[in-house]
Amino acid sequence: MLIVSPLTTIPAMSASSTQDVNGLQESTYTLEVEQVDTATTTRFNYYVDYVMKEYLPLREYTPEQRDVVVEILKVFPDEPVMVTIAWCESELDPTADRSNLGVDVGLFQINQVHLSELNRLGLDRRDLHDNITFAKHLYDRNGTRDWYMSAHCW
Questions:
Q1: Distance CA 92, CA 84 (A)
Q2: pLDDT (tens digit, 0 to 9) for every residue of the chain, 154 residues total?
Q3: 144 Cβ contact list (under 8 Å, min separation 6)
Q4: Beta 9-19 vs 110-111: how paired, if at all?
Q5: CA nearest 154: which of 64, 63, 54?
Q6: CA torsion angle for 37, 44, 125, 149 (degrees, to 10)?
Q7: Which end of the chain is more exposed for a tag (fewer CB within 10 A), N or C?
Q8: What are the helix (H) ranges across 3-80?
Q9: CA-CA distance, 67 to 121, in Å (whole number)?
């Protein structure tokens, strides 16, 4: 896994193949480097701060909470209400088990009724990124209906 800060570059690999005079196939790999657009990163950071201010009931946030909001907005860039839903469901705690029974688990409190679908997709609802990915799957299929029990909060 490549971890990229706003000021680093992202390498990409491309391949091409040719045949030499002896008929042997030779592959050539080219490393292409793309500069991360720092202006876009800056705009995204302002957007994260805006969403946290406008969509969450907190005055101060931990760096961990901000990191979670960043991960949510990477998947739901046009749906900041999903940040509020995550707050209402788990208070932005990726390890939340509100029922203490394993019924609803993780950031978006994914219910156990989805276990077979999660398994089929190879996702673990206790993993932050998998929980967000599955929340996106549910959202694309049903909108916000899967979180109707917390609708009074958002």
A1: 9
A2: 333 333 333 344 445 555 555 555 555 555 454 555 788 888 999 999 999 999 988 778 899 999 999 999 999 999 999 999 999 999 999 999 977 677 999 999 999 999 999 999 999 999 999 999 999 999 999 999 999 999 999 8
A3: 81, 85, 151
A4: unpaired
A5: 54
A6: -160
A7: N
A8: 38-55, 63-75
A9: 25
**113: closest CA among 121, 103, 122, 123?**
103
Which residue(s) pair with 17 in the sheet?
27
Nearest in space to 147 (alpha carbons), one of 76, 73, 67, 90: 90
- Cβ atoms of 137 and 98 within 8 Å: the answer is no
The radius of gyration of the chain from alpha carbons, rounded to an integer in Å, stands at 20
Spell out a b/e string for 61-72, using b for 16 or more CB atoms within 10 Å of the CB, else e: beeebeebbbbb
What's the CA gap between 125 and 103, in Å, rounded? 11
The encoded tokens of residue 49 equal 């701060």
Give the domain ranges of the chain.
38-150
pLDDT of residue 68: 97
